Queue: 3 jobs
Job 1
Amino acid sequence: MIRCEHLKVTFNAGLATEKRALRGVNLTIPQGEFITVIGSNGAGKSTLLNTIAGDIRSSAGRLYFDDRDVTALSAAARTRDVARVFQDPLAGTCGDMTIEENMALAYGRGNRGGLRLALNERLRQLFREQLSRLNLGLEDRLDAKMGLLSGGQRQSVSLLMSALQPSKILLLDEHTAALDPKTAALVMDITDQIVAEKKLTVLMVTHSMRQALDHGSRTIMMHEGQVAFDLSGEERSQYGVKDLLNLFAQIRPDGEELDDDKLLLGA
Amino acid sequence: MSLFSFLGTLEIGFIFGLVAVGVYLTFRVLDFPDLTVDGSFTLGAALAAALILAGVNPYLATLCAMFGGAAAGLLTAWLNLRFNILHLLASILTMTALYTINLRVMGKPNLALIAEPTVLSPFESLGIPNMYLKVIFVAAVVIAVGLLLAWFLNTQYGMAMRATGANPRMAQANGIVINEKIYAGLALSNGLVALAGALFAQTNGFADSTMGIGTIVVGLAAVIVGESLLNSRSMLVIVFSCILGSLLYRLAVSVALNADFIGFTTSDLNLITAVLVGLALILPHFRREWKARKAAQGGAA
Ligand SMILES: Nc1ncnc2c1ncn2[C@@H]1O[C@H](COP(=O)(O)OP(=O)(O)O)[C@@H](O)[C@H]1O
Ligand SMILES: [Mg+2]
């Protein structure tokens, strides 16, 4: 379970460029729930995920995992509970290191053992098994440099890496946005598989209304650093992309146009 | 080149192999350009020489020298991590401070080790001529360090250090405490460079307050030479290519200095090295620009 209590984040506090990115977010996500997060550019979606991961410190409010107050915990310490996949396929992996080394790093999350060799045959076998799920032939290229893979391949591996160690929470920040539609669909497939297998609590930011409604069981929309609406259950199942767009319009009465309708409506 | 000067070149090449792997750790593994090494090389020599002259066992003295170097590395890391001082500037501060500290350690600008025991003393009874013994000894030390370092970089801890330099955000997302890895890496790097200084003082019989000038550039040159020769993903190959790079660099320098028709002298060395390293740094830049221009033209066509 994740519980945000009045979470606030202000960038460049006190300067002319001050930006209140989160303005008191209240959100409770029960164990095992898969939430999709939408909202226009700059709404604070990434900031919310980064704050939950610990990359960004909140300036006020509290954050709980289950009933533990983790507000003061460092990002590294939170990785015992939190795994994540970034939007940029280059961000989640080391291009200069091999596939197996990257996976070994992810395998070490939460129980880094020090001066033991990071790789061995048993682990390589495990990595091969995992990689073969992707049907990309990567299981035969364990010692290829990550930098040689395409964006989609890297993102798929990042996703597998996020699930190598047990964790409770998975944070996905537009993790299919940089991919072509076909690869994006593949990555979403694996996402659903992993989430179901590991019974994870998930926050997935997406630009695609379709994706937001098709995956998970609850959708929230962020606007100006707050949760503007929260959709679940019966009500959500009756929503279509059109209805979501109407909600968008209501929240922005000034008639501001959405940044990219095609992206929002697309697969 | 005489056999004697060839062996001398190998000896220095091996010793600077330690500098090269130290520089590789900071510049390449951690992506932390660290100039502390100019000071920590001298610090290693100064500590070893001063302690040996004070009657301390040479092995203990060498160990102390390594810890001294490690402390210098920690200071640079602390200035950078704790106070957000740019890494280059932080290392220049430490290097400058070390200049005074090294003079204090030695008590005067240079110390001579003539009849004093050194790390080589226990092996002198083996009857191997001294000029061979020195090379064999430093080669053994450097190869052992290389093997250990390659192993270390493949451990969970070492791999975490590599990730810290390659992609700190990814490292952190995988539970790696990146600051700790930077402290450890700088301590290790400068500890190795100080070991090089301590060995240099004992095989060459002196420590001098200015001996460290240009160490960083020589180390970098060795790394670059090694990289251009061997391109591998194996840590073992990479570490030993740094050492090989150092040997080749020294041989090339020694050939150039010995070729009378070129007319180079030892004092020209720093300029030549700087030009070489400069070229090695500039060429990839031009290659990128050239590629980008070609791509732009291709796009426009
Ligand atoms: N590190 C930062 N420094 C200053 N401003 C930032 C920073 N990160 C994000 N912001 C600002 O905070 C707001 C929310 O950003 P973000 O959470 O990235 O939005 P999005 O919903 O598009 O993911 C934006 O106005 C953005 O410009
Ligand atoms: Mg974002």
Job 2
Amino acid sequence: MIAYKTTGIVDMELVSLPQDWEKQTRFFPVIECIEKIPCNPCSFSCPKGAISVIGDITNIPQIDFERCNGCSICVGKCPGLAIFLVNPNFSENKGAVILPYEFRPLPEKGSIVRLYDREGKEIGEGMIEAIRTSKAFENTPLVTVSMEKDLVMCARHIRFD
Amino acid sequence: MSEEYNIVIVGAGPAGLAAATTASKYTNKILIVDENIKPGGQLSKQTHKFFGSKNHYASVRGVNICNILLDGLSKEKVCFRPETSAIGFYKPDTLIIQDKEGLHKIKGNKFIFATGAIENMVSFENNDLPGVYGAGAMQTLMNLYGVKPAEKVLMLGAGNIGLIVSYQLMQAGVEIMGVVEASPFIGGYHVHAAKLRRMGVPILTSHTVKGVYGDGKVEKAIIHKLGGGFEPLHGTEKTIEIDTLCLAVGLTPSVELLHQAGCNIKFIKELSGYVSVHDDMMETNIPGVFVAGDASGVEEASAAMLEGNMAGLKAAYDIEGFNRSVFLNEKEIVEFELKSLRTGPFCERAQAGKKRLMVEER
Ligand SMILES: Cc1cc2nc3c(=O)[nH]c(=O)nc-3n(C[C@H](O)[C@H](O)[C@H](O)COP(=O)(O)OP(=O)(O)OC[C@H]3O[C@@H](n4cnc5c(N)ncnc54)[C@H](O)[C@@H]3O)c2cc1C
């Protein structure tokens, strides 16, 4: 049996990433949705047609990284909050992640937050670069947080005081 | 004196509302009764974005799906009576309902029972201690009435409901001490488990609750590990301080009315309990009596709506006898979507259950 069924932690080998993802200089989606569940809003959310659920609704979403323009709508629409946008080279020495954050209060732009990995372990600090709320995101606030480059594939939750 | 309707629907959850939506395209004089104050069934308590089919409003928050369905219903054709319980059905055409004024007889041509499901209970020491809650009650308190229902919760059950309600409790500022699951695997979707894990909530598979203890109320729970045959492993007990144990250990279809009405009831494990036998258009062995949604086997809102569409379509067709190709075309679309929905490891079970139901019937 696959480990995530007991741990709740995604097996990153099952997640598709662009080739040479570390060299990317723009945001690309990391879709941490690896099970055949009956769900398809992501495929309808993308204005560029970059995400598709082909055939049965239980098939796993496929992503065409070339078409993605980083608009973030899929991050807001995904009912599983399982899509993150990652930019490994957000600035010269920082990477950044856009993550869904459905808690109150929201962090403030420019503030420092603690970063957590998929197991809820604290892994470092990040800075809030932007917070966006919109009906297009189904009112799920999207937080852009910058961090050390080597944390972008690990940081999946934030906390602050 | 009794009122007369073409179609009487019991239950205003997604299945009942979808049945009314489809039926009202072809016929009128439709009544929906629901014992709750508000329509929507489970939908009205769900603040999260629904997973499921985009055609059935997935990605929209449950409570908003409910409003979309309601807004789509024609007031001239569909009458809704809240705080009204259906308490008995008498063949061939009489439903007894109860509201604040008392008992009433309702006459109908077709009946659709979309009564949903009820929560299961489990046995453990002191499971009647105040502070032991069903997940539905916790949701009603926090999402309908705006009451923070607890401070420190242990969740029993790592199916989708346990995982989603844990997340909603955290949004309300409640601390989740852990999710305990007897099976060796997380039963709910990985994506819902992942939301909790990244917030540091442990999910303890192969564990269960031995009991809850406290002076007149829950103050702590003792959990222990289970072996391969679900036997408690001695010496693995752990104490967790909590004020509430929340139960999310499955649902059972609500078939009491169908049973009383004289429908053929069968135990089908894959559909979560006793269900009423029905054909491919949701009609039971009693002509003119239909079932739809969780009441016909516990699944999800998209499936409940499709079953509601199906029952509403057939009921309206039998009354109005409209164009047959329109009827067949709509039936085919619903069948196709249902079939697609019931693929994959999570939904095959329901598919197998529905198959058994129909084969056993023959
Ligand atoms: C926490 C939680 C999260 C969920 N998340 C999702 C999700 O993300 N996606 C998804 O697809 N599904 C989800 N579901 C499942 C979904 O909500 C149900 O499958 C769906 O609501 C079933 O619809 P229904 O109409 O059959 O029953 P219900 O929604 O249960 O409605 C039944 C209605 O019948 C009424 N009723 C019952 N008996 C009587 C009577 N005798 N007289 C009058 N009225 C009566 C009840 O008051 C109720 O309003 C979730 C469920 C829960 C509990």
Job 3
Amino acid sequence: MSKIKLTSIAIKVNGVVREAQVEPRTTLVDFLRDTLFLTGTHIGCEHGVCGACSVLVDGDPVRSCCMFAVQADGLSVTTVEGLAPERGKLSAIQDAFCEKHAMQCGYCTPGMLIACHALVERNPHPDEAAIREAISGNLCRCTGYQQIVDAVKHATGAKSGAHD
Amino acid sequence: MKAAAFDYVRPDSLRETLELLEQHGDDAKLIAGGQSLVPMMAMRLTRPALLIDINRLAELKNLKRSAGSILMGAGTRQRSVEDDTALHAQLPLVKCALAWVGHAQTRNRGTVGGSLVHADPSAELPLAALILDARLHLKSKAKGERELPVSEFFLGPMFSDTGATECLTAIEWPVWERQGTGAAFDEVAIRHGDFALASAAAQVQVDAQGVCLRANVGAGGVDGVPRAFPAIAERLVGQRLDNDDLLRSVAVDATATCEPGNDPHASAEYRRHLATVLMERVLRQAAWAAAASFEGSK
Ligand code: FES
Ligand code: FES
């Protein structure tokens, strides 16, 4: 057996540069959870089906099980832990998830929050079709999705002050 | 499931990439967006000894626009094509196809070239490339540049004519005249964003009287490779396209040449049924879009 080779990486995670030695085959999600102990990001399927592992890479949502940690070297990653504006506060979307009961078991929630944050970043006033499209890559086995859609509507409506 | 161990290298240039491929051949695999490759590695369907990461090669992300065609770097992310509205006007079928490709999270990583090389028979971009008769540019250290029409590129399911030491560098998309051109893409999948059970795409061009000047139609998921039917679509030329019987006959005859597989998701019969219905539908929608292109300019 060849011995394990490690590669040095430096990834900015939630604003802080984290340096580490990783095996190339370590996925970004395993790195976040097992090396950095940022267990907010969940793992469902490990092969790009469920969306539970979604994080933002340079601001765009991606599935962190479909990317190796070495590939994120030098890039900036935001996990669900980095979405709140400050410690003890919730983002507008997070708050709306509570308000509208947009979670039950919570397994899909970090991925859903990442997908919804990314949507609102690109499109501050999404219509229902845009919301459904934005979360179409995230499976939820509990809510039936409706409350998640409601939460995004609530958060974006409240922001604009136009409706709700 | 975790991938088997591999070595990783991120070359700084295409030249270096081609050297690495020459050196390692079949043991190495290029990784672009990785949205098919990483899951395949996780399931150990493939276990390359060396992964060559071409994600950051700017040389593979160029976009050259000219009147008759667009030369798109193979490493162009699907999402950046989706965001480029100027490009949509020139490549309306690509725009329509992208709406069906995976999800935001996968389009942010997935590349146009990666999807073509992967050659999934039900994937959307290979079908769009086939309908538009795109040309592919490949490069290797030993043999230099090679160009071929996409109609010769897909050899079987997940099997394209890409040599072990070659890299797809660019896709040359023919641009149809804007006025009078319309495109449409439709598919049926178990969930939105999943691979299609069957898909169909069409692009047509009509004159101001609604007479067809040019047309192509095709289907995905109904054979070992995506299929286009230029010879059958040729029948539409010189005809008005508001004739459902004509569109249906094209769809029926095109489907008759397909050999879809049976699998737990759908029977061959059902896939055939879908292909016929969807091809007729996309032809009609493309004809509507083509007619509408005149209204905007009046
Ligand atoms: S764990 Fe990444 S998509 Fe399911
Ligand atoms: S809340 Fe349970 S999976 Fe979504």
